[in-house]
Write a structure and sequence with these properties.
Strand content: 5-15%
Largest sheet: 4 strands, parallel
Distance between the termini: 78 Å
Structural class: alpha/beta
Low-confidence stretches: 40-44
Number of helices: 21
Oligomer: single chain
Number of strands: 13
Strand order of the largest sheet: 2-1-8-9
Mean pLDDT: 90
Length: 498
RNA sequence: GGCCCGUUCGUCUAGGGGUUAGGACGUUAGAUUUUCAUUCUAGAAACAGGGGUUCGAUUCCCCUACGGGCUACCA
């Protein structure tokens, strides 16, 4: 068995999900995994896209089979390199009466659409248009001999019902009277997607096609093509996946929605080589690949239990195409963040540390020692949704805050409090133990003997160390900051309070 | 307009002829944390509508409505 995710899979959330489902299915059934990259239209082909898609899938942990049973000869194919082959099959269809040459220019057809708003190139009007069905053999041959630009169109039959069994939707039927004669080969000699998928899937011996629901209406054309080319027996199974929709409003999720609503829609940063526009990726937004994959897999699929957190191995074991839902899903970035938070907590520090260290580079700071960093990460990890949050949560450990939120304490400040902190730090000097527990006990004892309330002194202490009303346990912070750090910060704050 | 696909809390979904219609995100309240966040507990919140079939429909069938997709020499 071989599997092929949709052609542009990798760029967009939906595309990555298609590839993921494809991968899970292939892993379960022992199939090779092929990434099918198609560049049917050279003007649309984007340099670097193929490598980018591979990098995205690699980051997600979706990897082509390392030892495919039939490697080189089985693609992935570049359509621009296989022009002759597509032409040959298109002409074969003409010979067998399933297709025809069409000489109408794009402009002529456009004109038709202006006059007849519901214009379709079909059995209803094909004999009134300029093609090898309405012309006699002589006319056609002379046009061909003169090198007249032309397309090749499929001749859709009348009065037939195309039926197929979709792995997700079950029986789907189409009335051929309502299907138009799609272009198979364009005037420039390149195939359209319709011809290309069929020819390539045959050549690659694809057994299962996973693609988005937007392809459902063209499925009958593909099925007819498999039949007319004489390959009916080898036709793959189809699975049309539900679409991922905009969180608000209407329609499919697009990369513009991400920009507009402030979340990524691509797996990784992508810079369009033509426009230079950057589209932000989940990786660069701070998502862990495990969380990204988990979030994608549970968008439109579940295992029937209440389990929501899955590793890749668990997904491979639990996945089934039948349990993919049929309806489109509005994308919810809040839930995506929750997945990342859960995975952040589940990921060992050692794996997070390299990314945390990168933050120090960004801020051009000297890297603290690993054990120290590790302790701090443990302390703030569960408060973080993204690795980037580390800075917001813990930067005060490494940089003494210059701006302190003094407003919170200034109003009630008095000489007694100044005295309290001066004495406190003096006594710190002689403390032999320096850990959160002892510090807390010492602090409380000291407060009690001062006659003041603990609530009046805890907050000032926190603000002196952290700079604001946030952060983990004060004494934990004090412990990690070290004796000298604490004494310095209290002195600094006292100076500001004078 | 035509065709195809779909429709359970705001969102993602479980369920499936007889259920207190379950979970998660979000939200609200309370507890913990003498901060903030986390965490915990509790609450509000859904079967699109109408016809059948049936003793009984959220579940099966039909219609309508709504949503989405496609309707290019784009994929």
């Amino acid at each position: 068995m071989r599997f092929a995710p949709s052609p542009t899979g990798g760029l967009h959330l939906g595309g990555v999900r298609t590839a993921l489902f494809n991968y899970l299915f292939a892993k379960q059934h022992g199939g090779d995994f092929i990434l099918r990259v198609e560049d049917t239209d050279q003007t649309r082909f984007v340099p670097g896209a193929e490598e980018y898609i591979n990098d995205c899938l690699d980051w997600c942990g979706i990897l082509p089979d390392e030892s495919p049973s039939k490697p080189a000869a089985f693609g992935p194919y570049r359509q621009s390199e296989r022009k002759a082959s597509y032409r040959r099959f298109a002409e074969e269809l003409i010979e067998s009466g399933y297709a025809y040459y069409a000489f109408d220019t794009a402009e002529e057809l456009e004109e038709q659409r202006k006059v007849h708003p519901n214009f379709r190139y079909s059995h209803e009007n094909r004999l009134n248009l300029r093609n090898s069905l309405s012309f006699n053999t002589e006319q056609t041959n002379s046009l061909l001999a003169a090198g007249t630009p032309h397309t090749i169109r499929i001749k859709i039959p009348t009065e037939q019902t195309v039926y197929f069994e979709d792995m997700i939707r079950g029986a789907v039927t189409f009335d051929t009277n309502l299907i138009d004669d799609k272009v198979l080969l364009k005037a420039d000699g390149m195939p359209t997607y319709h011809l290309a998928v069929v020819v390539d899937d045959k050549a690659m011996e694809i057994s299962h096609v996973f693609r988005g629901e937007e392809w459902l209406p063209s499925a009958p054309v593909h099925i007819l093509l498999w039949e007319y080319l004489g390959w009916k027996e080898q036709m793959p199974n189809w699975a049309h996946l539900p679409l991922i929709l905009k969180p608000d409003g209407k329609g499919k999720l697009s990369k513009r929605d991400g920009d507009r609503l402030g979340f990524p829609v691509y797996a990784m940063n992508w810079t369009d080589p033509k426009t230079g526009d950057l589209t932000k990726g989940f990786r660069e937004t701070g998502f862990l690949p495990e969380a990204f994959v988990n979030m994608l897999a549970t968008l439109g699929w579940n295992d029937g239990t209440e389990k929501e957190l899955f590793t890749m191995a668990e997904l491979i074991a639990a996945f089934s195409v039948e349990r993919i839902s049929k309806a489109g899903a509005k994308y919810d970035f809040e839930k995506a963040k929750w997945y990342n938070h859960e995975w952040m907590k589940a990921t060992p520090n050692a794996e997070l540390l390299p990314q945390v260290e990168a933050i120090f580079k960004q801020h051009e700071l000297e890297l603290p020692s690993q054990p120290y960093l590790n302790d701090i990460l443990s302390l703030v990890k569960e408060r973080m949704t993204f690795v980037e949050d580390f800075w917001q949560q813990a930067s005060f450990f490494f940089v003494q805050p210059e701006e302190l939120d003094l407003n919170a304490i200034k109003g009630k400040w008095n000489a007694d409090k100044t005295a309290f902190f001066e004495e406190l730090t003096a006594e710190f000097e002689s403390l032999s133990q320096w850990n959160a527990e002892d510090l807390g006990a010492f602090f409380k004892e000291k407060v009690a003997s001062s006659g003041m309330k603990i609530g009046e002194l805890m907050m000032p202490f926190r603000i002196m160390l952290v700079g604001g009303k946030f952060g983990p346990d004060v004494f934990k912070i004090a412990e990690l900051l070290g004796k000298k750090g604490v004494i310095d910060r209290v002195a600094y704050a006292l100076g500001l309070l004078q």
